[in-house]
């Protein structure tokens, strides 16, 4: 048995005894951890853990990569436990006697549970816990009623650190406040669900590294729409979490149709519905619009859809009924979050109205003896006409005219056809009529008559005639002014004066109308000539 002096190890030097070795271990641990009171003795803890059969973490596991033995039930030591351990640590170095007693003790004094909690701290690599561990999850996930939606959740530790995950929990945030657990995964015991059958961890498996905590929700319901939080509990880092919004959608079924307005409502001055568009079973409710140039309004209502949480939207297009809208096309446009682009539904309007009548077939060239002439009664009517009635302003039809429904056949044009014809049409909403006057000619018109000249042609002819008359008057005036011109005399070399007179001489045989006349005065003319005038 060693002596008291050997156990003391040289007194104050503390170099060779048990007391000196414990002090050196404390100084080395203080240099490594920075706090000599955090753990009483890593060496003693490890020795006692080996004696109790507590497995030590594998070498080379970085940071918090060591997993506490025993799987579930082991949690990170609380701050209260750490404070209690610090109180148990001696405030001063123990005496040589107490140190020798601890070294010669046969059984360890540390409980196995505390050893299992403290042993990972002794094998943590320097710098463990200094990195940042992140949890990645999308802000929103969308799924359809009855389908499966996956809520992704991934743990991303720093490259130099391998986090030890002790538990994964999925929490559902309730609208009224608070949260409840919907899924739990333990590294050794596996998953646990309050409502099994609809939830499943996609990639997490017991005994494997827990990095992917993605959760699949099967057979989606409307009440599954909520905010979900994925939470990783790690040792020694603590908890990390990320939230995801689950949207539950339902794609609506859409249809549009035209409405037939009853007669009683058509006679009312108030707008009546003429088209209906239905978007059935949408979640959220669909948005319906009518992009149309018509002066219409839309009345919209919502009712519960065929599945819980869905909505059916009904939109009625109303307008003041008019025959001008009958047969026109309008479009019902449906927008929904599940559509890549709006759905366009064309609708052909059916507006009930009385008949609108006109007569065609007269070409203004009906002459006596013409055969097989025809008049047609053109009708716009909704509903369809129920009857046609042909007549004249004088009464019944002429003998040569035969009614054939909407057509009137004239076998031979005679004087009795020179009248006004009437076509009267009836449907369930009322009766309307149209008139046409026929002018019978004596014969066919080969060329257009003066009566058919246009006002422009008549004006041009009038201007030409007036211009011609004005030119003729001007010529007459000019000619008369030339005839009234006075004659002039010129003396000749032999003393005979010759009067040269320019006068108009009536042309004979195509001679020009103008000539030169030379007159000799009677005093110089021979006695038997008198006044001699020579014309050229």
From TrEMBL:
<feature type="domain" description="Ig-like">
    <location>
        <begin position="252"/>
        <end position="350"/>
    </location>
</feature>
<feature type="compositionally biased region" description="Basic residues">
    <location>
        <begin position="81"/>
        <end position="90"/>
    </location>
</feature>
<dbReference type="InterPro" id="IPR007110">
    <property type="entry name" value="Ig-like_dom"/>
</dbReference>
<dbReference type="GO" id="GO:0033005">
    <property type="term" value="P:positive regulation of mast cell activation"/>
</dbReference>
<feature type="compositionally biased region" description="Basic and acidic residues">
    <location>
        <begin position="29"/>
        <end position="38"/>
    </location>
</feature>
<dbReference type="GO" id="GO:0050839">
    <property type="term" value="F:cell adhesion molecule binding"/>
</dbReference>
<keyword id="KW-1015">Disulfide bond</keyword>
<feature type="compositionally biased region" description="Gly residues">
    <location>
        <begin position="60"/>
        <end position="73"/>
    </location>
</feature>
<feature type="domain" description="Ig-like">
    <location>
        <begin position="111"/>
        <end position="247"/>
    </location>
</feature>
<dbReference type="GO" id="GO:0043296">
    <property type="term" value="C:apical junction complex"/>
</dbReference>
<dbReference type="GO" id="GO:0050862">
    <property type="term" value="P:positive regulation of T cell receptor signaling pathway"/>
</dbReference>
<dbReference type="GO" id="GO:0005886">
    <property type="term" value="C:plasma membrane"/>
</dbReference>
<dbReference type="GO" id="GO:0002891">
    <property type="term" value="P:positive regulation of immunoglobulin mediated immune response"/>
</dbReference>
<dbReference type="InterPro" id="IPR036179">
    <property type="entry name" value="Ig-like_dom_sf"/>
</dbReference>
<dbReference type="Pfam" id="PF07686">
    <property type="entry name" value="V-set"/>
</dbReference>
<feature type="region of interest" description="Disordered">
    <location>
        <begin position="1"/>
        <end position="103"/>
    </location>
</feature>
<dbReference type="Pfam" id="PF08205">
    <property type="entry name" value="C2-set_2"/>
</dbReference>
<feature type="compositionally biased region" description="Low complexity">
    <location>
        <begin position="94"/>
        <end position="103"/>
    </location>
</feature>
<dbReference type="InterPro" id="IPR013106">
    <property type="entry name" value="Ig_V-set"/>
</dbReference>
<protein>
    <recommendedName>
        <fullName>Ig-like domain-containing protein</fullName>
    </recommendedName>
</protein>
<dbReference type="GO" id="GO:0005925">
    <property type="term" value="C:focal adhesion"/>
</dbReference>
<feature type="transmembrane region" description="Helical">
    <location>
        <begin position="458"/>
        <end position="479"/>
    </location>
</feature>
<dbReference type="GO" id="GO:0001675">
    <property type="term" value="P:acrosome assembly"/>
</dbReference>
<keyword id="KW-1133">Transmembrane helix</keyword>
<feature type="domain" description="Ig-like">
    <location>
        <begin position="355"/>
        <end position="437"/>
    </location>
</feature>
<keyword id="KW-0472">Membrane</keyword>
<dbReference type="InterPro" id="IPR052659">
    <property type="entry name" value="Nectin/PVR"/>
</dbReference>
<keyword id="KW-0812">Transmembrane</keyword>
<dbReference type="InterPro" id="IPR013162">
    <property type="entry name" value="CD80_C2-set"/>
</dbReference>
<dbReference type="GO" id="GO:0007156">
    <property type="term" value="P:homophilic cell adhesion via plasma membrane adhesion molecules"/>
</dbReference>
<dbReference type="InterPro" id="IPR013783">
    <property type="entry name" value="Ig-like_fold"/>
</dbReference>
<feature type="compositionally biased region" description="Gly residues">
    <location>
        <begin position="8"/>
        <end position="19"/>
    </location>
</feature>
<dbReference type="GO" id="GO:0002860">
    <property type="term" value="P:positive regulation of natural killer cell mediated cytotoxicity directed against tumor cell target"/>
</dbReference>
<dbReference type="GO" id="GO:0046814">
    <property type="term" value="P:coreceptor-mediated virion attachment to host cell"/>
</dbReference>
<dbReference type="InterPro" id="IPR003599">
    <property type="entry name" value="Ig_sub"/>
</dbReference>
């Amino acid at each position: 048995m060693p002596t008291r002096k050997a156990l003391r190890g040289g007194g104050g030097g503390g170099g060779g005894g048990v007391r000196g070795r414990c002090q050196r271990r404390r100084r080395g641990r203080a240099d490594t951890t920075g706090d000599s009171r955090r753990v009483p003795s890593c060496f003693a803890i490890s020795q006692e853990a080996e004696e109790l059969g507590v497995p030590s973490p594998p070498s080379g596991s970085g940071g918090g990569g060591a997993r506490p033995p025993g799987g579930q039930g082991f949690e990170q030591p609380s701050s209260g436990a750490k404070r209690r351990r610090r109180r148990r640590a001696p405030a001063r170095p123990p005496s040589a006697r107490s140190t020798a007693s601890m070294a010669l003790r046969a059984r360890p004094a540390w409980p196995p549970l505390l050893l299992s909690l403290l042993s990972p701290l002794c094998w943590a690599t320097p710098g463990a816990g200094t990195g940042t561990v992140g949890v990645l999850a999308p802000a929103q996930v969308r799924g359809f009623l009855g389908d499966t939606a996956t809520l992704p959740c991934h743990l991303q530790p720093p490259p130099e650190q391998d986090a030890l995950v002790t538990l994964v929990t999925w929490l559902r945030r309730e609208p009224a406040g608070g949260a409840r657990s919907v899924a739990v995964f333990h590294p050794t015991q596996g998953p646990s669900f309050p409502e099994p059958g609809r939830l499943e961890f996609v990639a997490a498996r017991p005994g494997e590294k827990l990095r992917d905590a993605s959760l699949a929700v099967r057979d989606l319901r409307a009440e599954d729409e909520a905010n979900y939080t994925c939470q990783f509990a790690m040792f020694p880092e603590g908890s990390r979490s990320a939230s995801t919004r689950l949207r539950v959608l339902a794609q609506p079924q859409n249809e549009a149709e035209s409405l037939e307005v009853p007669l009683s409502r058509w006679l009312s001055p108030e707008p009546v519905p003429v088209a209906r568009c239905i978007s059935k079973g949408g979640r959220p409710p669909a948005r319906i619009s009518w992009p149309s140039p018509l002066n219409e309004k839309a009345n919209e209502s919502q009712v519960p859809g065929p599945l819980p949480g869905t909505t059916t939207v009904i939109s009625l297009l109303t307008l003041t009924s008019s025959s001008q809208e009958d047969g026109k096309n309008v479009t019902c446009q449906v927008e929904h979050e599940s559509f890549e682009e709006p759905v366009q539904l064309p609708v052909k309007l059916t507006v009930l109205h009385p008949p609108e009548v006109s007569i065609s077939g007269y070409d203004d060239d009906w002459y006596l003896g013409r055969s097989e002439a025809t008049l047609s009664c053109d009708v716009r009517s909704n509903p369809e006409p129920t009857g046609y009635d042909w007549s004249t302003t004088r009464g019944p039809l002429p003998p040569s005219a035969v009614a054939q429904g909407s057509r009137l056949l004239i076998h031979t044009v005679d004087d009795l056809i020179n009248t006004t014809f009437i076509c009267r049409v009836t449907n369930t909403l009322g009766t309307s009529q149209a008139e046409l006057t026929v002018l019978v000619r004596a014969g066919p018109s080969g060329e257009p008559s003066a009566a058919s000249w246009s006002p422009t042609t008549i004006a041009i002819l009038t201007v030409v005639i007036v211009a011609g008359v004005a030119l003729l008057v001007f010529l007459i005036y000019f000619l008369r002014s030339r005839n009234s011109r006075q004659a002039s005399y010129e003396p000749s070399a032999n003393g005979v004066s010759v009067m040269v007179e320019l006068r108009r001489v009536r042309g004979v045989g195509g001679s020009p109308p103008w000539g030169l006349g030379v007159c000799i005065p009677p005093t110089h003319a021979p006695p038997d000539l008198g006044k001699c005038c020579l014309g050229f």
